Amino acid sequence: MQVYFSNRFPKYLEDFTYSAMDFLGVSNLRGEVRIRMVRRLEDDCYGSCLGNDREVDVQIATTMMGEPISRTNKLLTVGHELVHVRQCLMRQLYIDAKGATVWNGADYSYCEKSVERSRGLPWETEAFALQQSVLDNWYRYKKTEDPRRINI
User: What was the pLDDT predicted at 115?
Assistant: First the structure.
């Protein structure tokens, strides 16, 4: 697994990313992941993930609706998007040659792409269900490492 971070990617998020990848089993998969910070994402989302079973691009927003995103929400977002990375690399989630979104072999291209409706989609359900566990695991890891060093 190769991971590339943008120049503006904070060190605490890099540390968290490696921990989250281990927790989710992404470290054991083959492929390339590029993660970068962006000021704002279309539709005022916290993050986005797009890729296939070889390469995945992740973007993490620093602002939403003009307001800065908290460190905790950035951590949750990275955890959430890394679930999507795993889904892409394992070919559970992908965009086919016709531009249709495919989840575990089923065509979901008919679904609206609104943020409000995305929570009910199976790949989003999994990501929302795991993002807090990924963060909790990192907090436990940081606490056992040295409680005075938790600088998030």
Answer: 47
